[in-house]
Amino acid sequence: MQHTVFVSAELLVLLIVIVTALAFDFTNGFHDTANAMATSIATGALKPRVAVALSGLLNLIGAFLSVSVAATVAKGIVKLNDVSGQDLLVIVFAGLVGGILWNLFTWLLGLPSSSSHALFGGLIGSTIAALGWSGVIWASGNEGVLVKIVLPAVLAPVIAALVAAIATWLVYRIVRGVSTDKTNEGFRWGQIGSASLVSLAHGTNDAQKTMGVIFLALVAYGSINPNDHMPLWVMASCAVAIALGTYLGGWRIIRTLGKGLVEIDPPQGLAAESTAAAIILTSAHFGLPLSTTQTATGSILGTGLGKGAEVRWSVMGRMVIAWMLTLPLAGLVGALCWWIADVIGGLPGVLVVFAILIAGALGMWLQSRRDPIGSHNVNDEWASAEPSEPSDSAK
């Protein structure tokens, strides 16, 4: 006797949303590997391939340590009482597409922009397109976009730069009189521990954002309630996705952070990584979906200031521009994707947007192959990374 298996259109949309969310998690991994390992690779504390493998493993472990950030993402952006079912699924899907495309675009340019803000921007844009401005939780006591996202985005890099600058100044005062060779050797060993802590913190903070998105999709489908615990399979799949992405290595961004902003010595690397880890873990404890990219970049900038080293302000300027554009442009893409899906309607609309995502991702990957950067050349001098026709840095 034959049995016919019927899969509803709404279930297919849910599956596409989950796959897209895990794809975003994967891009988050390779986009943000530099946050933990750029300085260790630049100073020679870890070989490039060893660094990304270690970072991937610790991201995997870190993803299981907390779900506070996931709760903020799942319940703190969209007013769940205003939308449900397939309508909410399409909003989440369009937001994810906006986040992925912005992640890939900034990776292509070698710019360490925020994966977190790309995701939030995409979700906010698609929500506004679908529900209007009132559909977004902008501020509600200690909750909302302004308190949980915008305020940390402004404060994190500034605080990180100040703390790292002070830490670097103290480090060089302490080791004054010790030979440079002995100092560098000791701090390279220390960097292995501090870089590992950043990777653990990154998994604790960033993997949860995708968990929150999948949780939101499951609520929309009706398979769980908003107050349920995070399913273990969601935690495990997000942990694996971000770990695999991290292992792939975002070499273009690693070069920018490790070589492009400040020439880093091992004492600076330890100060930068320790500062970033402390701030990221603190934010995860309080459920703040912090931008690990901005925190790590601020820390690296601070080490240059603390040492009195040359800072390439033109590179920093391009990063800041990318940070400022991330939320609105990812939001614009998310809104456009929602509009396309809505005009076509139903499952066909979602499939068309999914096809656009695949085409865009493939196009940017093919463009990156024209000037490949990998573990073999990530530590080349920065001057050679700035050709007349830009590929790993924005004009």
TrEMBL record:
Superkingdom classification of source: Bacteria
Subcellular location per the Swiss-Prot or TrEMBL entry: Membrane
Membrane-traversing stretches: 6-30, 50-73, 88-111, 118-139, 145-172, 207-224, 230-249, 320-341, 347-366
Keywords: Membrane, Phosphate transport, Transmembrane, Transmembrane helix, Transport
InterPro entries per the UniProt record, alphabetical: Phos_transporter (IPR001204)
GO molecular-function terms, A-Z: phosphate transmembrane transporter activity
Membrane topology term: Multi-pass membrane protein
Protein name: Phosphate transporter
Species, as recorded: Nocardia camponoti
